[in-house]
Amino acid sequence: MEKCPNCKARRKEDSECYRCGFDFTYPILCEQISKRFYQNALQSFRNGNMSQAFDWVSKSIIYDNHPQSVRLQRLLLMQKLYHVKEEKQEETRQTIQSA
After folding, report:
1. Structural domain harbouring 62
2. CA distance linking residue 3 with residue 91, whole number of Å
3. Which of 6, 55, 79, 90 has its Cα between 20 and 30 A from that of 46?
4. Is 19 domain-assigned?
């Protein structure tokens, strides 16, 4: 977190904002949890488990709507839609061939 979410002052390494006194404990915790979930999503993606990767990245976005997480979620959604489209085309081909 670079800026205070409350007053937008530049954040120093303190645990609260020097300008408005906002406590950074929970926002920092949310960022850490989000990063952990994002790393789990990447690991699942590398292992080929796209469903689990989607679940992890969706949880990551709940805690911190980071652009990298959103891009990964979109990639996984597009991949899922592509596979559904392929499956439907294959079903159509089989129906035509059996008719």
Report:
1. 25-98
2. 52
3. 90
4. no
